[in-house]
Design brief:
This protein has 2 domains: 70 residues, 2,3-Dihydroxybiphenyl 1,2-Dioxygenase, domain 1 (Roll); 76 residues, Signal recognition particle alu RNA binding heterodimer, srp9/1 (2-Layer Sandwich), CATH 3.30.720. The chain is built from 2 helices and 10 strands; from the N terminus they run βαββββββαβββ. The strands form 3 sheets. A 4-stranded mixed β-sheet has the order 1-4-3-2, covered by helices on one side.
Length: 164
């Protein structure tokens, strides 16, 4: 059996921009289908929005996104405390503990600090840094941020395998 899991982001009209942003960070190819591509008449509000979007790169990174019908990223009632449209919740770190009411974090793990640093540098543009990327007790690099689209990312370097 071959089962995989892929994060599917539900965004308030920002899926196209989010997929382009994540492509600039992770590389790969974006596939996007609009509501218009599936039959919504041209000129209808929302016909140009994404109903199926996916980013996939050669190393297997995959992320999906779509625009929630009827949500507008410019409406104040669709923004959370940090201005992230459509994403309620907060995450903070204090004294080595993570405090959150978000349903999930997106995790990115690399095999070297240099590899993870590239992802961190891209994702941190316009982000709220929760925990700066730095060495920790369990990893050569660990950091946490909420990006400009309201997605909270945990980035770290995989610890070396123990012999035994």
């Amino acid at each position: 059996m071959s089962i995989t899991t892929t994060t599917h982001l539900n965004l308030p009209g920002t899926a196209r921009a989010a997929l382009a942003f994540y492509q600039s960070v992770f590389g790969g190819q974006v596939l996007a289908t609009t509501y218009g591509d599936l039959g919504m008449p041209a000129g209808t509000p929302g016909a140009d929005r994404i109903v199926f979007g996916q980013l996939e790169n050669e190393s297997g990174f995959r992320l999906m996104a779509y625009d929630i019908p009827g949500l507008d990223p410019d409406r104040a009632d669709h923004a959370d405390h940090a201005g992230h449209a459509g994403h309620a919740g907060t995450t903070t770190r204090a004294h080595g503990l993570t405090h959150t009411d978000r349903a999930f974090f997106q995790s990115v793990r690399g095999t070297s600090l240099a590899e993870v640093q590239v992802c961190w540098d891209g994702l941190s543009d316009g982000a709220e840094v929760i925990e700066p990327l730095a060495a920790s007790a369990w990893s050569a690099g660990f950091g946490m941020l909420t990006d400009r689209y309201g997605v909270t990312w945990v980035l770290d370097v995989q610890p070396p395998a123990e012999n035994g």
